[in-house]
Design goal:
The complex is a heterodimer of chains A (210) and B (242). In chain A, 26% of the residues lie in helices and 29% in strands. With 210 residues, chain A is an alpha/beta fold. Chain A has 2 domains: 134 residues, P-loop containing nucleotide triphosphate hydrolases (Rossmann fold, 3-Layer(aba) Sandwich); 59 residues, no CATH class. In chain A, a hairpin with a 3-residue loop joins strand 1 and strand 2. Chain A is globular and about 45 Å long. By secondary structure, chain B is mainly alpha-helical. Chain B is built from 9 helices and no strands. In chain B, helix 4 packs across helix 5 and helix 7 packs parallel to helix 8. Chain B starts with a helix and ends with a helix. The relative contact order of chain B is 0.13. Classes of the chains: A alpha/beta (210), B mainly alpha (242).
C-alpha cells in the first residue's frame, strides 16, 4: 500500500445548514480515487476544505502537498494563458516546463487572454496549471466538464500516468462513465447533509447506487 | 453628443440672458472672448499648464500613497483598520485647512503647498477604492491564492495591482476631477500662478470678464480631460479585462 496522501475522518461542515456529515475518505500514493455524487451534496465544499480554503467544523483532515483544479477556472483575466499556467512555477522561481500542452491541445492558445478563448479552452488551461504544479496529490473537481471527447480521453490517460508514477489523484465528478474507467476506488456521496453512502472497488458498478 | 449640444445651447442662452439682465455683474460672451485676446495665448497656456502640473502632481502623490497603503495593508490587519480610520479622518478635513497648513509650512510662492493640498483632497477617493477593491480581488481569487501561496509582494504584483486596475481607473477619474477642482482653490490662496490664481486676481481687480474667462477655461479643461482621456481610458481598461 502506498503512502497516505489524503486522509479525511468524520468531517463535518455547516454553513447556514449542515453540508457534510461525518465524511471519511483516503487517497494513497499510486491511487486514483473517485468521489461521485449529485449536485449540491457538498463535493466542492469538500475540495475547498482539502485545499485549505475552508475550515471544517470538526473532524480530521490531512492532505500532503496538493494541487487542485477547482470547479471555477480562476484564470487571471489580465494574464495570457501562458502566464496563467506558469504562475505556480514563477512564484517558486522555477523554470516553467510546458508539459501536457500538446496533449491538451493548447499550443495555439497560450498567447491569448482568457476572454479570447472558449470555456473549454479556459478549463483546459486551468487543468494545465494544476498539472504543472509540484504536488503529491492532485485533486480535480469536475475535470471533464466542457472537454471534448479527445481531451477527456487524454485527461484519463494523464491521470492514470500520474498514478503510475506514484502520485495520488482524487477526481470529483458527477460523470460516472469517465470515473469508473480509471478509478481504483470510488466513494459515492449523497444525502442532505451529505454522507459517504458506499465505497466501490475497481470494476464494481456504481449504477443505481445513488 | 446630442446631450452636449443641448447643454452648450442652454448654457450659451442662459449666459446671454443673464448678461443682458445684469450687465454690471455678468460679462457677455463677446467681452469674455475679448479678454482672452487681451491676455494672449502665452499667459493662457502657461496658467493652464501650471494648473495641470499642480493637479497631476497632486494626483500622482495621492496615487503613490495609495499604492503604498495597499501594499502595507497586505502585511497587517491592524494597518488596514488604521487606513479605514485615516480615510474617515481625511474626508473630514476641509481643503481650506490643508491649504492654510501647507502655506504655513511651505510659503505662498511654493508649488509644494498647492500640490500637497491637491494630493490630500484626492487621496481619500483613491484610498477608499484601493482598500475595498484589494479586498474584493483577494476574496475572489482566494482559492487560487491559498493554492499558490504567493509572497506578499507576488500577491501585490500579480493579483492586487492588475486586479484593482479597473476600479482604480474609475476612482482615478473621480480623484483627478477633485484634484483639478481643488488645485485652483489652492492656487487662489497660495500660488503665484495657475488658473485659480488668475481667477482670484481678476476678481480682486474687478475684471469680471477675467473671472468668467478663467472659470470657463477651467470648466472646458475638466470636460475635455474627462471625456477625451479619462472616460476612454476607463472604458478601455474595463473592455480589456472582460
Amino acid at each position: 500500500m502506498g503512502e497516505r496522501l489524503v486522509l479525511v475522518r468524520n468531517l463535518r461542515k455547516s454553513f447556514s445548514e449542515p453540508i457534510l456529515d461525518g465524511v471519511s475518505l483516503e487517497v494513497r500514493a499510486g491511487e486514483v480515487v473517485g468521489l461521485i455524487g449529485p449536485n449540491g451534496t457538498g463535493k466542492s465544499t469538500l475540495v475547498k476544505i482539502l485545499a485549505g480554503v475552508e475550515n471544517p467544523d470538526s473532524g480530521e483532515v490531512f492532505v500532503k502537498n496538493p494541487s487542485v483544479l477547482y470547479q471555477e477556472d480562476y484564470l487571471l483575466p489580465w494574464k495570457r494563458l501562458r502566464d496563467n499556467v506558469c504562475l505556480p512555477a514563477r512564484f517558486r522561481g522555477k523554470e516553467c516546463r510546458l508539459e501536457y500542452v500538446e496533449r491538451l491541445d493548447l499550443e495555439n492558445y497560450l498567447d491569448l487572454y482568457p476572454k479570447e478563448v472558449s470555456g473549454g479552452t479556459r478549463r483546459k488551461a486551468s487543468l494545465l496549471r494544476s498539472l504543472l504544479m509540484d504536488f503529491d496529490v492532485l485533486i480535480l473537481d469536475e475535470p471533464f466538464t466542457g472537454l471534448d471527447t479527445r481531451s477527456k480521453e487524454e485527461l484519463l490517460s494523464i491521470i492514470r500516468e500520474l498514478a503510475n508514477s506514484g502520485k495520488g489523484v482524487l477526481v470529483v465528478s458527477h460523470q460516472l462513465e469517465e470515473l469508473f474507467k480509471i478509478a481504483d476506488r470510488v466513494y459515492l456521496i449523497g444525502g442532505r447533509p451529505a454522507k459517504i453512502k458506499k465505497v466501490l472497488g475497481r470494476g464494481e458498478s456504481g449504477k443505481g447506487a445513488l | 453628443m446630442r446631450g452636449w449640444l443641448y447643454l452648450f445651447l442652454f448654457a450659451l442662452a442662459s449666459w446671454l440672458v443673464l448678461s443682458h439682465l445684469y450687465p454690471a455683474l455678468i460679462p457677455t460672451p463677446a467681452e469674455t472672448l475679448a479678454f482672452y485676446r487681451e491676455v494672449g495665448l502665452s499667459l493662457i497656456l502657461s496658467s493652464l499648464l501650471l494648473t495641470l502640473y499642480h493637479s497631476f502632481s497632486g494626483f500622482l502623490v495621492a496615487s503613490l500613497l495609495t499604492g503604498l497603503a495597499m501594499l502595507l495593508a497586505l502585511y497587517s490587519r491592524a494597518f488596514r483598520d488604521f487606513l479605514n480610520a485615516l480615510n474617515v479622518f481625511l474626508q473630514s478635513v476641509s481643503v481650506l485647512v490643508w491649504t492654510i497648513v501647507f502655506i504655513m509650512l511651505f510659503g505662498v510662492t511654493s508649488s509644494i503647498a498647492t500640490i500637497l493640498v491637491t494630493a490630500m483632497a484626492s487621496f481619500p477617493a483613491l484610498l477608499s477604492a484601493g482598500v475595498s477593491s484589494s479586498e474584493k480581488v483577494v476574496e475572489k481569487y482566494r482559492p487560487l491564492i491559498v493554492l499558490l501561496k504567493p509572497s506578499k509582494l507576488q500577491l501585490y504584483r500579480h493579483f492586487i495591482v492588475p486586479g484593482t486596475l479597473p476600479e482604480m481607473v474609475s476612482a482615478g477619474r473621480v480623484a483627478l476631477g477633485i484634484a483639478l477642482r481643488i488645485s485652483v482653490v489652492a492656487e487662489a490662496f497660495g500660488s503665484a500662478g495657475g488658473i485659480g490664481y488668475r481667477l482670484v486676481y481678476s476678481y480682486d481687480l474687478g475684471i469680471k470678464a477675467g473671472v468668467f474667462a478663467w472659470a470657463l477655461l477651467l470648466i472646458l479643461l475638466m470636460i475635455a480631460l474627462d471625456q477625451l482621456l479619462l472616460r476612454r481610458l476607463e472604458e478601455w481598461v474595463k473592455g480589456w479585462y472582460w
